[in-house]
Amino acid sequence: MNGVPSSERLKINSVLSSEWLKLRSVRSTHHTLGAAAAIVVLGAVWTYYAGTAWDGRDPAGRAAFRAAAPEEGFLPFLQMALGVLGVLAITSEYATGMIRTSLVAVPDRRRLFLAKAGVLAALTLAGGHAILLATYAVSRIIAGGRTMGFNAGPFTADLPALLASGLSVTVLALVGLGTGTITRSTAGGVASVAVLLFVLPGVANLLPEPWGLRVFALFPIALVRQIAGEPVAAQAGAGALPPLVALAVLVGYAVVAVAAGVLSFTRRDA
Amino acid sequence: MIEVRELTKRYGDTAAVDGLSFRVEPGHVTGFLGPNGAGKSTTMRIVLGLDAPTSGEALVNGRRYATLPRPMRAVGALLDAGAVHGGRSAFDHLSCLALAGGIGRSRVAEVLEAVGLTGVARRLVGGFSLGMKQRLGIAAALLGDPGVLMFDEPVNGLDPEGVRWIRELMRALAAEGRTVLLSSHLMSEMALTADRLVVVGRGRLIADTTVRELTGRYPTLEDAYLALTAGSVEYGAAR
């Protein structure tokens, strides 16, 4: 077996297609994607509800009417659902012991982990953006000609926020993969994602100003708005970070999570 | 060929494997015997690169497992029949492994046929009996048509027909010139299946011999095993 040419080595494409089949052949992937897609329905219901409120107002009330955009309001739900998908992509293998079977097939651990991360990133990028776009489109159709605030601008003006939101979903999925790998526990991984999304930003808000806002601005939930050039919070005026810096910080979460995952995955016994 | 050299694996203060050396040659079924906690499974995990040794090394065909260019074509292993995702069908499970190893999908149908699981290939593995999972694990081990095979307790949960099937499969694989390492606690079965024996206790080598040699000295292989491992039975020494 010695002296096998390098072209005979396991191809990254083989590992990628194996990981893709792994991901799509289990129900949990369909369930988490389905849960994520529920925001299309939630967004439609929300827009319909806000629309009936708008219909009941007089012209002055209608002019002053401001409703939150559903693709923005329900974004944390999407981030959480696909964050769980990221966690399960690795912890389901540890929970079942499948990880040892996988590692016997692909002993190059870095390659196996990066293939898993790559497939997860591709699926969540496509799925996250599709779900956000559908939510956006359905809510605009239901809103129709009503001036509800969120549907004031043209699509091109909303595009940066949509793209940033979609990217954040993938970042949270990769954070889930990383924390799931480090903790080897579904509960540990899901809790880590929830803490990053919901708990720590709230704690940051308790810090004395200006630190409260400065720290809050660094969390994924605040970065999406800053990437789109929107104020980090309603009362804060301009965003704390320039869009490109905010984008770099958001991508940084994914890079750190994947790097930590690779370290943990390659250095410990399976 | 499998070569284990001065292999040691420590978990804290306890040594699961303690300076173990032996070779498993092609063309024979080699039985791997020892009490629970003797270090058999740990040794197999290290051979497959799943666990890192504290010192020493384990080589397959002269190389560490992780450096084999096409590992599934070189080595097939069944360590734990339960180490599968219960939410995947048998066909998808094997397809995932075949894709990863660059093995054609037609081979999946072949190994399913070989282990008798063709009829349940589309059923979820979670609903399989232990015996069916053992067959699935053996199918996975055979996927790459490897020259080296390792099986940890493959007859657990199998019915008498399955036990005989495993015995004949092991002997057929060895007769084709493959290296076969087989662990089991069933001495009567081992006496029928294996030619050579590696006996370990408390992580150390107790005997590296042949079945014929032992059954010549003792009434049965079971008597030989119990005499050799007396004093090595110690629970909690390793995981």
Strand content of chain A: under 5%
Q: Characterize the main sheet of chain B.
A: 6 strands, mixed
The CATH topology of chain B is Rossmann fold
* Helix-residue proportion of chain B: 25-40%
Order of helices and strands of chain A: HHHHHHHHHHHH
Oligomer: heterodimer
Structural category of chain A? mainly alpha
Share of residues in helices of chain A: over 70%
**Span between termini of chain B:** 26 Å
| Uncertain residue segments of chain B | none
The dominant shape of chain A is globular
Keywords (chain A): Membrane, Transmembrane, Transmembrane helix
GO molecular function (chain A): ABC-type transporter activity
GO cellular component, one term (chain A): plasma membrane
Transmembrane segments (chain A): 32-54, 74-96, 117-139, 159-177, 189-207, 244-265
Structure described in brief:
The complex is a heterodimer of chains A (270) and B (239). Chain A is mainly α and 270 residues long.
Describe the 3D structure.
The complex is a heterodimer of chains A (270) and B (239). Residues 1-8 of chain A have low confidence and may be disordered. Chain A has 270 residues and is mainly alpha-helical. Chain A has one domain. Chain A contains twelve helices and no strands. Chain B is globular and about 50 Å long. A six-stranded mixed beta sheet of chain B has the order 5-6-7-3-8-9, sandwiched between helices. A three-stranded antiparallel beta sheet of chain B has the order 2-1-4, covered by helices on one side. With 239 residues, chain B is of the alpha/beta class. The mean pLDDT of chain B is 93. Chain B has one domain (2-81, 131-229): 3-Layer(aba) Sandwich (Rossmann fold), CATH 3.40.50. The longest helix of chain B has 16 residues, at 160-175. Classes of the chains: A mainly alpha (270), B alpha/beta (239). The A-B interface holds A 1-2, 4, 6, 8-11, 14-15, 17-19, 21-22, 25-28, 92-93, 96-108, 269-270 and B 45, 48-52, 61-63, 65-66, 68-72, 74-75, 77, 79-80, 82-89, 92, 95-97, 99-102, 140. Chain A: Pfam families: ABC2_membrane_4.
